[in-house]
Amino acid sequence: MTPVRRKRLIIVVVIVAGVAIAAALGLQAFRKNLLYYFTPVQVAAGDAHVGQRFRMGGLVAMGSVQRSPGSMTVHFTLTDMQKSVPVVYTGILPDLFREGQGIVVYGTLDKQGLFVAQQVLAKHDAKYMPPEVAAAIKKAKAAQQAQIAAKAAS
Amino acid sequence: MNSWHEFLSMGGYAVYVWPAYGTALVVLLANAIWPGRQQRALLKELRRRSLPSEERPT
Amino acid sequence: MFIWFHKLASPPYFYKFAGILAPWLAWLSLLVIAAGLYGGLWLAPPDYQQGDGFRIIYVHVPSAWMSMFIYMVMAVAAAIGLIWRMKLAHAVSAAAAPLGASFTFIALVTGSLWGKPMWGTYWVWDARLTSELILLFLYVGYMALNHAFEDRRTGDRASAILALVGIVNIPIIHYSVKWWNTLHQGATVFFGPRAEMPPSMYIPLFIMIIGFMVYFAAFILKRLQVEVLQRERNTAWVRALVAKS
What we know:
Structural class of chain A: alpha+beta
Largest sheet of chain A: 5 strands, mixed, barrel
Number of strands of chain C: 0
Oligomer: heterotrimer
Order of helices and strands of chain A: HHEEEEEEH
Number of helices of chain C: 9
Radius of gyration of chain A: 24 Å
Distance between the termini of chain A: 80 Å
Strand content of chain A: 25-35%
CATH topology of chain C: Four Helix Bundle (Hemerythrin (Met), subunit A)
Largest interface: A-C, 41 and 43 residues
Strand order of the largest sheet of chain A: 1-3-4-6-5
């Protein structure tokens, strides 16, 4: 490599490294602002700006969904398996909204600790499978559970 | 998929699935056609310039 | 082998070589993409949660993958062009940019059309979507800067530096779903005991990625022919070529 080319190579490396370091520092500084949502644990720890609107993500707790008859209002609990927050929402829910599903809610926390959501977005996981397989897994799990229960009873 | 009807309706998601594929088709086709046309136009222009000025079609 | 590469880097040989290879690759890509679409839209089973709506994956993921891959090609070629002043390298960057921008655009639009029914919104400003949008701006910025100067060489060097600077965005796009809480889901695991997708679903996906790669190869060659013609318009070989045609 000629000295001129080596010099150019060094300049190119310095540009890329410099920008990478600047970007890393910048992203580090804005880390929290780049979060699209907070988890219930973060909310409990006081990370979210309570009183202001913010987003909270987690799973819809099993058996927590209660629809009020005759209205679009829905009550459920959002959990990250460590902390839970009760949520109320009025409006149309996305197709993927169901118990056990990851979702993101946008709204405010009131004084009683109830999250009043203005928007509910469903977050889907990275898992894909045919419906028959999902049904088979569910069946196998239920059978396993029944077996454990039978063992415990005997 | 078992039938054409099932295929086209995409389980009720047709309004999202087909525009997604349509957009991709249009963009990729445009990218496939464009460079060939540009090449022909450029060759034509270079040929016109290579002729002596009195022979140049106006 | 080395001599062959050296010969290939000379514009007249490259022009001829690209002219022969591009149509073959174009037809091959059509075949592979058709096979991938048949597998993805017809053969693959529906998803247990998203039904047939998940089939947008077969155009969304390959496009998003290409958008990052082409950026790497563009940036590496830009670096080679800056360091070794190789004639063809800057042409490769310039030819890659519009294709990269196209795939980025497709990834954004198809993602948006997928997000509406599943998430409940066309767009959110999460780290993954925002960094992919920045990628589109980088491509557009590259193309604008490349043509902004009277002298093509100045434009090549200025835009090459932009391409290099923008390379930091690539790991950000890739790891955004890990580094931050995003609405966009994480990367799917395809193989091993913790695989999150069965072969009947991922095989068409990989066929589509291969199809898009071949498509890219075909049309970057075609675009390079145009770039080479433009850049070498005053040389003897182009004059001879024009006279022959």
